[in-house]
Amino acid sequence: MRIAVLMKQTFDTAAIISLDASGQIERQGVNLIINPYDEFAVEEALRLKEKHGGEVTVISAGAPETQDAMLQALAMGADKAILVTDDNMAGSDEYAAALVLSKVLGGLEFDLLLAGWRAVDDGSAQVAVRVAELLGLPQVNVVTRLTIEDAKAVATRDIEGGSEVVEVPLPALITAQKGLNEPRYPTMRGIMQAKKKPFQKLSLSELGLDAAQIAPKVKAISYFLPAPRAACKLVPGEAPEAARELCRILRETAKII
């Protein structure tokens, strides 16, 4: 079974995010990781390979340092990696990323395409589904359980207030939600083997693309951080007195009653 996995390198969700003088996210010194939802996709691909045989190829488009996250996926057990990196991709949006990734996949043979349902940095949840549309693939999103039988995928997906079971023919896109699995940690042996596995780097020109074709349709003008929370105020005294004081604060200061 040939499985392709789309992945992205993102900020560590535990990192403290700051803005630089231009109002953009400060990247210096910030720990970068595999997007957690993409990590679920990598793990699911490895489990399917262990059950059905085959190979797993991880694919990404981004800055050169994205290779660190891809090496982690190889250390987990993926077989190959393909990274598209090009100076002309700086500032690219979801449209551009999907176009680039679809060009890579157009040159591959695969039975199943996996990805995280969204990235934790921008939360757009657009790239994977755009890729599926460009390639004409059926898609099932926010999946928490997946089985493959008779060239079909049977997936349980989250919906509001419950879940839904969907069957689609392969090849198809499945996007992973939290709860699909628990990703493994790379072993020391896996880390050493990752450096010897096939790792292909491509430029836009090698995909038949140029800067004009991936010009962003949407541009982020600026970012801002949430306002700091006000300090907690404790109301002293016995319950009746404290309750009266609390009501006074809510009425006169907070003005919510």
Explain what this protein looks like in three dimensions:
This protein has helices at 36-52, 66-76, 94-106, 127-135, 188-194, 239-253; strands spanning 2-6, 9-11, 32-34, 55-61, 80-84, 112-116, 139-149, 152-159, 162-169, 173-176, 199-202. The chain is of the alpha/beta class. It has two domains: 2-214, HUPs (Rossmann fold), CATH 3.40.50.620; 229-257, no CATH class. A hairpin with a 2-residue loop joins strand 8 and strand 9 (162-169). It is globular and about 70 Å long. The N and C termini lie far apart (62 Å).
User: What is the assigned CATH homologous superfamily of the largest domain?
Assistant: HUPs
Query: What would CATH call the architecture of the largest domain?
Result: 3-Layer(aba) Sandwich
The CATH topology label of the largest domain is Rossmann fold
C-alpha Rg (nearest Å) = 23 Å
* Structural class label: alpha/beta
CATH class of the largest domain: Alpha Beta
**Helical amount:** 25-40%
Please tally the β strands and state the result.
11
Distance between the termini: 62 Å
| Principal-axis shape | globular
Specify the number of helices. Answer: 6
- Overall mean pLDDT: 92
Strand fraction equals 15-25%
Number of domains: 2
SSE topology string: EEEHEHEHEHEEEEHEH
Strand order of the largest sheet: 9-8-7-10-6-1-4-5-11
Give the biggest beta sheet.
9 strands, mixed
Keywords: Electron transport, Transport
Domain Electron transfer flavoprotein alpha/beta-subunit N-terminal: 22-211
GO molecular function, one term: electron transfer activity
Subunit structure: Heterodimer of an alpha and a beta subunit.
